[in-house]
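Subject: sequence -> structure tokens, single chain

Hey, anyone have a minute? Need the predicted structure for the following. Not urgent.
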Amino acid sequence: MKKDYLQIIKDLLAIVFLIFHLYLIFSGLVPNIIQRSIHLCLALPIIYLYFPIKKSRTKLTGDILLASLSFVTSIYIAINYEKIIYQYGIIDGKLQILLAIVMILLILEATRRCVKPALPIISLLFLMYAFFGHLLPGHFGHVQLTPSTILGMLYLTTNGIWGMIVGISVNIIVIFIMFGAFMVESGGGKGFINFSLKLAGRFKGGPAKVAVISSALFGSISGSASANVATTGVFTIPMMKKLKYDKSFAAGVEAAASSGGQIMPPIMGAGIFIMAELIQIPYLKIALSATLPAILYFYAIGIGIHFYSLREDMKSIDPQNIPSTSETLKTSGFFILPLFTLLYFLFKGYTPQYSAFWAFFTVIILFCFNLNWQIDFKSIWPKFYRGFTNGARQAAVIASITACASIIIGVINQTGLGVKLSSFILDFSKENLFLALFLTMGTSLVLGMEVPTTAAYLVAAVIGAPALIKLGIMPLAAHLFIFYFAIISAITPPVCGAVYIASGIAGANWIKSAKYALILGFSAFLIPYLFVYDNSFLLKGSNLDILYSIVRSLISITIISSAVIGFLGRKLNLWERGIILISGILIIIKSPLLNITGLGILFTLILIMRKVDEQKNLSLDKSLE
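Reply:
Had a minute. Here:
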């Protein structure tokens, strides 16, 4: 019976969480600090109940206590809102000190449970800096702050826990996560797989190419590398293994493909909504600008797989296992209609959350149909139940991440650390753009290895973006550069979350899987540098410039992938790969002279290779005679 009551509480929390955020879309009357505190008073208990410290149902007393405390400490802000707004962050009494300390600890523990412990540890280090940073000598020291000043800023103002980052989680991220979760349950997930099978299954390396397409499609609405791997990987990895593909290769393919989902419009990752707020550029404009880099990312993975499958003579999928055209069209409707609705309202100029609501509403209508488009009312409740429980759990995780990141951002702003770190990047790089980019890339990769993408991007952006912008980089390009590498960190050793999950599904060695992910994604590491040095990759400039960038990048990525994989018509030796790599780099640089030189080197090498191969074949024929 206890189990039943607990499940009822979890379900009620999830459905209230959903209803509250749907209500906010149409209500402009709820003050920011109230809606954000209610957001966390629902999200944190969901985490403590869905991610118990022990799996045993009989040992949940501590989790229930923490869930209750997180509700109380959050709702206190909403109830006492009219008093708190006139305190201006000044703590009033021991009760508020206690509540502030408990609130911070509860956020750190909730984040530790649902993601890796790195983010809470980093938050603790920043808190220690706030309390003791005045003892540091030189550039990184700050003015002494009293404990009550720090706690008051974090707990009682919108400069701390209840800041803009949590506000984005409340107003935008939750409805998009719910939309994605419900769309998968409606049949959209099956539609992605069938569409990918029909498009790529019949070609060499078909299962691997299916993984790329399905991951791009699913990632466009999930915005999470881990969710992407877990959803598409359970289908694509066994399919590759069944055709005798190396299991480490299968895991590497899935990890590399799934990581790119967060840069694939229309939804992308949660970080993209934070970016829109930070640089004050509409979400739709960012999504449009990010389209070409996203396509190039998946093209780089896809062409790498193509060359590898030719080199290893990999099998295609049995035609009997590829869905018919009619079946593909039927199931594709379950993701095309909701995505069309979302894009329609976005291009009409409506807000992202309003657009997502109507896309969500479209999905609810699709719940009435089975995959053959026959009315099936019996399946509505199971789909709805899975949708709101999975969606609430995913949204609660993002809520805890944004709350934990808000602690870091609050400390950075209060102590002036962001300005100090940006100055350090400029001084260390001696204002050299490439060195500054390299340092910022390293920061994003290191943070992203252990910290969720959203938080990694946010912290790296606060530290690195001002320095890059000061060096003349367009704000959108600077932030996308940081966001991109925070995402790629999911396949970058030694800590590569997407690879760990994929190798777990495949039963493969994670180091070998990471090697394949990096080989396939090698060209992808160049793309952020392309759009920083040439804004036409972000669809800025004349149509001719954009076309020129598209053509040379596609040629260059193809050539570089060929060199890295070691195949161009036949297996390449080391010196051939080196020359092809050089030609690819020359073609990617925005210089007609270097592009022509690169093409000249490539064609000359191809002619030499053909001549050498003809002579070898002739010698072989003579020896056989």
